[in-house]
């Protein structure tokens, strides 16, 4: 363990920049976006420097810590605000600052017509700071601060155009759904503290082997709830689709590449909890498998390009969650898929933003068609991301997703077959819906009307897209070459301890199977959407309409949570009105009734007052006389 | 002579004063009745002082006299003002706040 004193700048720089730009106001309108981008880029620079420095250290010295200040000291409860940069954190730091900087650059052009561009960049920097704190905190409590910070930044950015009520509602929905998960995280922290007397990762890790299975399962389940809220996993997935109300760079950065993967980070970081509780692991794989299919099915029915990509994000994170539940070897594959997904999904979201930029913010894919000719760079970068996500070799998704499918099959027994089957089915549906997106958008005949004048986006926008698509081509190969990432992460997730278990199928067979279903999915989509796409969505079968309604997630929430909640609220209001207010009103009424009678005494005649006073004095004396008698 | 007769006299004077305050309308007379009540109390003080053989009661009676003197000053001023505004010295006419 190395002690360093420059880690804090990773967080302090963007945080300062955010506050600076927000406080400075209109003065900074001219250069605020450049300043924020510069700060983000320098954060990336620090991240790279730290990465190189970490690589030059060996073994246990690789992980670095920095104590910033003593945060809480109450009795035996002590928490330091200190940072931990280890092999896992640095992956995230590079992803967040790298993709973040590219998206900053992209946003300069994308938001150039927005009068609030400076505020947008201030929020982006706030997000970078919070997300870095999330991955750098050395205890659950420090992580929690970052966890809430990214929730805040996400809320502010989803509702960035809050003059539209639907967008403001979407922001609120995301915030509320995230709060449910946050309760899980705070409960996990509290249970951890009562069990281990510590909330640092090291302290919990040291105590985990001696804790009772029930406590570990409870902590694991609460962490899973937190992850489900932040990463839009079943059953808290409903907010992600609406979160697409935010500007597209936000969807790319926060709701595809980084923030929504915080749940995967949390579970991976808590690997010692999940390694010790097979029940918690089972819950994790169930949630992951359900979500990966759920998102994929929703993705097949969406006509809104951003919502289709959001459903895809949900599904891909389902893969990562599934991988984290598969035991020690799964963590590295989850992180690998997370990193490659960060590249190709950000690339595709930026591509979608580029398309919208050229099409007057039209998001309905049925009104696109034939855009490949007019936007060649967007089409190529999007296409590379597309090849990566469906898992065509040698693109990034092939390496990361196949590993997850393979590990799922190897989970053993019926469980392995079910999970592997679900992952394989998910891969087929992914190929189908992503092909649908690409075909509807870039090929076929033009279906836009004369008002739209699609054109290629400016270079500030396509350069980040090109760089990200390079990442989505090469990252998978680079990360899996010689199991580079698995070895790199080994000190954190300890994959050797529970290695073993026989392979159900040889890796090459799994790859061939996956490739087979992918080709099937692609072929089906081309046949179905290759030509004659109606501009108005057809009525569709019952299943299609169900998928369009997000498989009833909002209806379910409305019936099961909102309506009973409203009924309880109405009941409480009625009880407040009838009972509590009733008592208060009764007191008032009784007093008023008596005072009506007493009022008659106040007749304004001095002599009657005098008589009353005399009578009172006599009564008093009589009482005293009687009492003392 | 039985000293308790002074107490009886004091009680009678006080009762006359109290009845006068309650039944008479003329403010001057009411005022005089109040004075009568105060003096009845003074008489009781002095008598008790005599009975107890110390001068505490007598001192208290001086206090009462001082208060009574002040009360006369303020009370007469009020009655004069009342008479000027209402052209009447009847206490029953002084019920403006009620109306």
Descriptors for this entry?
heterodimer, A: 629 residues, mainly alpha, 3-stranded mixed beta sheet, 3 strands, 73% helix, globular, B: 99 residues, Helix Hairpins, 78% helix
Describe this structure in words.
The complex is a heterodimer of chains A (629) and B (99). Chain A has helices spanning 8-24, 32-56, 87-110, 117-136, 140-158, 165-196, 201-207, 213-230, 239-242, 248-257, 262-269, 271-276, 278-301, 305-324, 328-358, 371-374, 376-390, 396-409, 413-442, 459-480, 484-493, 507-529, 542-548, 553-599, 606-628; strands spanning 2-3, 64-74, 77-85. With 629 residues, chain A is mainly α. Chain A has a 3-stranded mixed β-sheet. The mean pLDDT of chain A is 88. In chain A, 51% of the residues are buried. In chain A, helix 14 (305-324) packs across helix 18 (396-409). Chain A is globular and about 110 Å long. Chain A contains 25 helices and 3 strands. With 99 residues, chain B is mainly alpha-helical. Helix content of chain B is 78%, strand content 0%. Chain B contains 3 helices and no strands. Chain B has helices at residues 4-23, 27-52, 56-86. Chain B is elongated and about 50 Å long. The A-B interface holds A 602-607, 610-611, 614 and B 18, 21-23, 25, 30, 91-92, 94-95, 97-99.
Topology summary:
The complex is a heterodimer of chains A (629) and B (99).
Chain A: E1 2-3, H1 8-24, H2 32-56, E2 64-74, E3 77-85, H3 87-110, H4 117-136, H5 140-158, H6 165-196, H7 201-207, H8 213-230, H9 239-242, H10 248-257, H11 262-269, H12 271-276, H13 278-301, H14 305-324, H15 328-358, H16 371-374, H17 376-390, H18 396-409, H19 413-442, H20 459-480, H21 484-493, H22 507-529, H23 542-548, H24 553-599, H25 606-628
Parallel strand pairs in A: 1-2
Antiparallel strand pairs in A: 2-3
Helix pairs in contact in A: 1-2, 1-4, 2-3, 2-4, 3-4, 3-10, 3-15, 3-20, 4-5, 5-6, 6-8, 8-11, 8-13, 10-15, 11-14, 13-14, 13-19, 13-23, 14-15, 14-18, 14-19, 15-17, 15-18, 15-20, 15-21, 17-18, 17-19, 17-20, 18-19, 18-20, 18-22, 19-22
Chain B: H1 4-23, H2 27-52, H3 56-86
Helix pairs in contact in B: 1-2, 2-3
């Amino acid at each position: 363990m190395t002690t360093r004193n420059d880690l804090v700048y990773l967080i302090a720089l963007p945080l300062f920049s955010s506050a600076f730009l927000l406080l400075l106001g209109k003065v900074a309108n001219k250069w605020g976006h450049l300043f924020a981008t510069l700060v983000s880029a320098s954060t990336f620079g620090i991240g790279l420097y730290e990465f190189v420095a970490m690589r030059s250290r060996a073994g246990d010295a690789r992980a670095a810590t920095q104590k910033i200040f003593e945060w809480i000291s109450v009795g035996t409860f002590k928490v330091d605000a200190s940072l931990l940069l280890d092999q896992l954190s640095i992956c995230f730091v590079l992803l967040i600052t790298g993709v973040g900087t590219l998206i900053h650059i992209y946003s300069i052009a994308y938001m150039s017509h927005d009068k609030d561009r400076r505020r947008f960049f201030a929020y982006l920097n706030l997000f970078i700071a919070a997300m870095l704190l999330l991955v750098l905190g050395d205890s659950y409590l420090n992580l929690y601060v970052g966890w809430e910070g990214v929730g805040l930044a996400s809320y502010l950015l989803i509702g960035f155009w809050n003059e539209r009520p639907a967008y403001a509602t979407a922001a609120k929905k995301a915030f509320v759904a995230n709060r449910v998960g946050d309760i899980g995280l705070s409960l996990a922290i509290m249970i951890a503290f009562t069990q281990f007397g510590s909330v640092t990762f090291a302290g919990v890790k040291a105590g985990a082997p001696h804790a009772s299975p029930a406590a570990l399962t409870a902590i694991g389940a609460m962490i899973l709830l937190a992850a489900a809220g932040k990463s839009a996993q079943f059953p808290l997935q409903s907010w992600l689709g609406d979160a697409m109300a935010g500007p597209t760079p936000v969807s790319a950065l926060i709701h595809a590449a980084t923030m929504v993967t915080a749940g995967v980070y949390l579970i991976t970081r808590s690997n010692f909890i999940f390694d010790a509780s097979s029940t918690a692991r089972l819950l994790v794989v169930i949630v992951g498998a359900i979500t990966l299919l759920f998102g994929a099915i929703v993705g097949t029915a969406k006509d809104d390009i951003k919502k289709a990509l959001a459903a895809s994000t949900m599904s891909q994170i389902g893969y990562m969650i599934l991988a984290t539940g598969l035991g020690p070897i799964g963590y590295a594959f989850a992180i690998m898929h997370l990193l490659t997904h960060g590249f190709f999904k950000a690339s595709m979201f930026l591509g979608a933003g580029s398309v919208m930029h050229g099409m007057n913010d039209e998001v309905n894919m049925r009104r696109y068609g034939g855009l490949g000719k007019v936007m060649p760079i967007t089409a190529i970068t999007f296409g590379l991301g597309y090849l990566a996500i469906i898992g065509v070799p040698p693109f990034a998704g092939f390496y990361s997703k196949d590993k997850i499918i393979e590990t799922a099959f190897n989970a053993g027994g019926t469980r392995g077959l079910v999970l592997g089957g679900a992952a394989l089915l998910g891969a087929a549906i992914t190929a189908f819906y992503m092909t649908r997106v690409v075909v509807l958008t870039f090929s076929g005949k033009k279906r836009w009307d004369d008002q739209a004048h699609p054109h290629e986006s400016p270079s500030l926008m396509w350069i980040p897209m090109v760089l990200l698509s390079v990442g989505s081509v090469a990252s998978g190969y680079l990360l899996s070459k010689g199991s580079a990432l698995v070895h790199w992460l080994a000190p954190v997730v300890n994959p050797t301890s529970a290695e073993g278990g026989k392979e159900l199928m040889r890796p090459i067979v799994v790859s061939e199977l996956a490739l087979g279903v992918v080709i099937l999915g692609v072929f089906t989509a081309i046949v179905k959407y290759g030509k004659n796409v109606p501009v108005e969505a057809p009525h569709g079968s019952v299943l299609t309409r169900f998928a369009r309604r997000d498989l009833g997630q909002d209806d379910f929430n409305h019936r099961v949570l909102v309506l009973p909640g409203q009924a309880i609220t109405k009941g409480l209001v009625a009880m407040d009105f009838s009972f509590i207010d009733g008592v208060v009103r009764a007191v008032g009424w009784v007093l008023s009734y008596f005072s009506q009678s007493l009022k008659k005494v106040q007749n304004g005649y001095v002599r009657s007052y005098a008589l009353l006073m005399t009578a009172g004095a006599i009564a008093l004396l009589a009482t005293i006389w009687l009492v003392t008698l | 002579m039985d000293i308790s007769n002074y107490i009886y006299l004091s009680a009678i004077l006080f009762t006359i004063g109290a009845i006068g305050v309650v039944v008479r309308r003329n403010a001057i007379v009411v005022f005089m009745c109040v004075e009568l009540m105060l003096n009845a109390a003074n008489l009781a003080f002095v008598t008790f002082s005599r009975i107890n053989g110390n001068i505490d009661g007598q001192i208290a009676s001086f206090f009462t006299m001082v208060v009574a003197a002040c009360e006369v000053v303020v009370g007469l001023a009020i009655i004069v003002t009342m008479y000027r505004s209402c052209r009447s010295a009847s206490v029953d006419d002084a019920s403006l706040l009620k109306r």
